[in-house]
Design goal:
Bound molecules: flavin-adenine dinucleotide, 1,4-dihydronicotinamide adenine dinucleotide
EC number: 1.8.1.4
Number of strands: 23
Enzyme class: oxidoreductase
Helix content: 25-40%
Catalytic activity: N(6)-[(R)-dihydrolipoyl]-L-lysyl-[protein] + NAD(+) = N(6)-[(R)-lipoyl]-L-lysyl-[protein] + NADH + H(+)
Cofactor: FAD
Number of helices: 13
Domain Pyridine nucleotide-disulphide oxidoreductase dimerisation: 348-457
């Protein structure tokens, strides 16, 4: 074969980490290839994660509104579910998005090498295509962006259409009568919401005595109350220890986490959503002297794993979020290109795309208390926000936490419709090191839900709230 110049960067994995790195490298004029074994680019997020789940959340939210909200405001309809069309509309959007990434690769001169990549030594990536053919790429730098996969639950083996992971839950061909979700985390609550809205009876079994660990406890408590009101049931402090496939469903053995008598729960479909784990299968890490940590994550020092080997995204530490992978991606390529690459992990926002949404950035009250930080707290309920009232969407509140001495914003937490859109004024304020008073003194348009964030900041300052 004709000798070609080595790539400046070969990225393994074409998800939000890998594809953003490839595009950034192309933009900086680096010779770059991205190895992806899936038939389409975009990784978990575009193919079986963020995007299809948000498509179903949007569609099912509209269906739910048509069923239960429209009549209240004087619109009488009798909605009928066409699940096939709902899936098709989701699949069409996903295809358009993955094609969009392919287009951006071409535009930025990033090569997509189709196949499974394996590191076979310093600067060498062997790629095996679907047809079995093998090629070896020479790389000055290798970026590992292989992402994550669902964590299986011992004793509860996956079974097509019956015991499923998030990917299965994105394409169920029929609405289950009774869906049992194991794990009250983000996937369990988002996808549980989808199927509840479409008609399933949903029970969520959670090991801890609370839902959504990581979310501010006050918010999580309110969130659970709202989800319960919507018809979702929770079995907290409970662990699933076994599953038995029966003719018309699955029988789960459930025990109190603290020990005690077991009981049986039966559902026609069980969704296992107990977390995701880093994916490094067959990656050849040993060829460059890299060993993942006990939980399978690859450690790094400013993205560097070994000489000429870098890591980003879900396969390394930090929140397993698409936008975090994207931040890593730009920072690693900038670092490789000799520029300044930096990610502020303290300011990665989190959003749960249920109804209402929950969004936050910075620290929770639990974290501030644990760290012994003196803080002030301001809160404003959506029941007192005019836009929320007009729209009959008054569940939830905004909460601002600020340093007691300096007034610097330390965390902002919102539960309410479109909280995911509203959180960014908090993120920007915090990235400028802003104070709660800065939000409180900034003119906000009326009537908007964002006024609730301002009111919460005013509450921190002890100013009178708007009636
Ligand atoms: P991935 O997206 O997992 O991409 C890794 C890619 O590498 C994969 O395409 C894989 O095929 C490929 N690969 C792995 N090994 C090899 C190899 N050896 N050779 C070639 N290719 C390989 N995050 C959000 O921020 N917002 C959301 O709303 C959201 N919703 C989600 C909903 C669901 C149901 C799930 C499962 C996840 C969701 N996430 C969400 C998380 C998000 O998808 C991940 O954080 C993100 O995809 C991580 O990006 P990544 O590039 O690190 O890895
Ligand atoms: P998660 O970590 O959010 O939640 C898992 C839940 O399962 C936890 O509450 C945990 O206590 C519980 N659990 C663990 N073992 C259990 C057991 N044996 N029995 C019962 N409960 C058990 O993980 P999840 O929901 O699977 O999501 C994985 C990742 O995907 C998340 O970390 C998140 O970063 C990402 N994601 C992000 C989304 C978003 O940003 N909106 C949407 C969906 C996923």
């Amino acid at each position: 074969a004709e000798a070609t110049a080595p790539y400046d960067v070969v990225i393994i994995g074409g998800g939000p980490g890998g594809y953003n790195a490839a595009i950034r490298a192309g933009q900086l004029g680096l010779k770059v290839a991205c190895v992806e074994m899936r038939a389409t680019l975009g990784g978990t997020c575009l193919n079986v994660g963020c995007m299809p789940s948000k498509a179903l959340l949007h569609a099912s939210e509209m269906f739910d509104a048509a069923n239960s909200e429209f009549a209240k405001i004087g619109i009488e309809v009798q909605p009928k579910l066409n699940l096939g069309q709902m899936h098709k509309s989701k699949d069409d959007s996903v295809t358009a998005l993955t094609k969009g990434i392919e287009f951006l690769f071409k535009k930025n001169k990033a090569d997509w090498i189709k196949g499974r990549g394996k590191i076979v030594g310093k600067g060498k990536v062997e790629v095996t295509a679907a047809d079995g053919s093998v090629q070896t790429l020479d790389a000055k730098n290798i970026v590992i962006a292989t992402g994550s996969e669902p964590t299986p639950l011992p004793g509860v083996a996956f079974e097509d259409g019956k015991v499923i992971d998030s990917t299965g839950a994105l394409s169920l061909p029929a609405v289950p009568k009774k869906l049992i979700v194991i794990g009250a985390g983000i996937i369990g609550l988002e996808l549980g919401s989808v199927w509840r809205r479409l008609g399933a009876e949903v029970t969520v079994v959670e090991f801890l005595d609370r839902i959504t660990p990581g979310m501010d406890t006050e918010v999580a408590t309110a969130f659970q109350r709202t989800l319960t009101k919507q018809g979702m049931s929770f079995k907290l402090g409970a662990k699933v220890t076994g599953a038995k496939s029966v003719k018309d469903g699955v029988e789960l053995t459930v025990e109190p986490s603290a020990g005690g008598a077991a009981e049986t729960l039966k559902g026609d479909v069980v969704l296992v959503a107990i977390g995701r784990r880093p994916y490094t299968e067959g990656l050849g890490l040993e060829s460059v002297g890299v060993t993942p940590d006990k939980r399978g994550f690859i450690d790094h020092d400013h993205f560097k794993v070994a000489d000429g080997v870098w890591v980003i995204g879900d396969v390394t530490h930090g929140p397993m979020l698409a936008h975090k992978a994207e931040e890593d991606a730009v920072a690693v390529i900038d670092t490789i290109a000799g520029k300044y690459g930096h990610v502020d992990y303290a300011l990665v926002p989190s959003v749960v795309y249920t109804f209402p949404e929950v969004a936050w950035v910075g620290q929770t009250e639990d974290q501030l208390k644990a760290a012994g930080v003196a803080y002030k707290k301001g809160k404003f309920p959506f029941t007192a926000n005019s836009r929320a009232k007009i729209n009959h969407e008054t569940d939830g509140f905004a909460k601002v936490l600020a340093d007691a001495a300096t007034d610097k914003v330390l965390g902002v937490h919102i539960m309410g419709p479109q909280a995911g859109e509203m959180i960014h004024e908090a993120a920007i304020t915090m990235s400028f090191g802003g104070a709660s008073e800065d939000i409180a003194r900034t003119c906000h348009a009326h009537p908007t839900r964002s006024e609730a964030v301002r009111q919460a900041a005013m509450d921190v300052e002890g100013w009178m709230m708007q009636a």
